[in-house]
Description:
alpha/beta; globular; about 40% helix; about 20% strand; Rossmann fold; seven-stranded mixed β-sheet
Amino acid sequence: MKIHYRRSSQKTILVVDDDPSVRDMLMRVLVNEGYKVWTAANGTGALEIAASARVDLVILDLMLPGENGWDVFERLTTENPLLSVIIATARSDQAFTAAAAGVGALLEKPLDFPKLLQTVGDLLTEPPEVRLARMAGKSSKLRHLPARQKESVK
Length: 154
């Protein structure tokens, strides 16, 4: 687990992905936008960071070694219901589960970075009442961003 930041007064994002290249890429993109970033390779590391540091948003992969991403999501949000979570996954069949769980956004890999950054900004400025309503199942608004489509060559 590592922390990276450019300005300490900025919002803090925890990136949880078992693929080091994905973690590094997301960390670089987010740090370049001025966010403070923690990274973890698994659910245990993510839960340790979330328990000991202020985290404003989590970008969470579902396919993790040990605990799966949904178990980590449940533990993170049980301990902090106001925590915004973006599920980032290569699995395209998770929209219903994500909406039912109260996830802030579901982004399918490969990620579209402009859309990811817009979604991060939207969730970080979302009022707490909206997050709580989503977690309580009173709001089903899910930001679902399907995988970035490759442009066809003509």
